[in-house]
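Dear colleague,

Thank you for sharing your sequence with our group. We've completed the structure prediction you requested, and as agreed, I am returning the results in plain text so they can be pasted directly into your records. Please verify that the sequence below matches your submission; if there's any discrepancy, let me know and we will rerun it promptly.
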Amino acid sequence: MGLGLLYWAVVGFSITLIGAVLYVLLPKKQTLPCGRFLLQKAFLLFIAYFKGAGLLELDDSALQTLADRKGAMIIAPNHIALWDAVFIIAKIPRTVCIMKGAILRNPFLGGGARLAGYIPNDATSQMLLAAVHQLKKGATLLLFPEGTRTKTKAQWLNPFQGAVGVLAKHSGAPVLPVFIRCNSRFYEKGWSLYRKPPFPIQLHFSVGEPIYFSAGETVQTFAARLEKLYLTELAKPHPLRRISL
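Please find the predicted structure tokens below.
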């Protein structure tokens, strides 16, 4: 685990330095694929190390259906841990991620994210406009409907935010539910960066049917409908179902 964190620090900082230079030198049409390529390869190697070291048992085969899907879509996972986006971006490198502005300014993560054209969520209106613009151009957008990692005391989810409904309404793009299950609370909200979990961490991804914004719906009713779907799915019996604390 220590080597994995060291890898993250060294590679993340290196990509930030490289990304800062390439962001200035390359035309924008080239910066986006370059940034996404660098991040995907870094994430793939990180995942391969964790699996090879026996720290991680990963079943992400369902994400291939999203990698193969054409056209605009909103990938919307529940957000159980700090590293959730890593697995999705590793599998679907064309993804445009909506992320905290603080991460874009982080020396270990920000350079590659800026180079890849990820969207900061500092200003909600600007974030929504940028995301709708990307979706109308056919982008694959990664958005966590909870807005932040699932809180420790929550059984299944935090309440969904309205952003997912706004994007679905104004872009016409489908929301693709992604259900993440894990045998550990590793890197949940409040988990110390250096706290060791029981190993191996078992992580499973599944994908639901596309959900479209319906005529006559409001942003709030759409978010509530989507949240109910997640609650129903995550409550089903499963070997990695979330355990109450």
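Summary note from our side: The chain has a mean pLDDT of 93.

Kind regards,
the structure core
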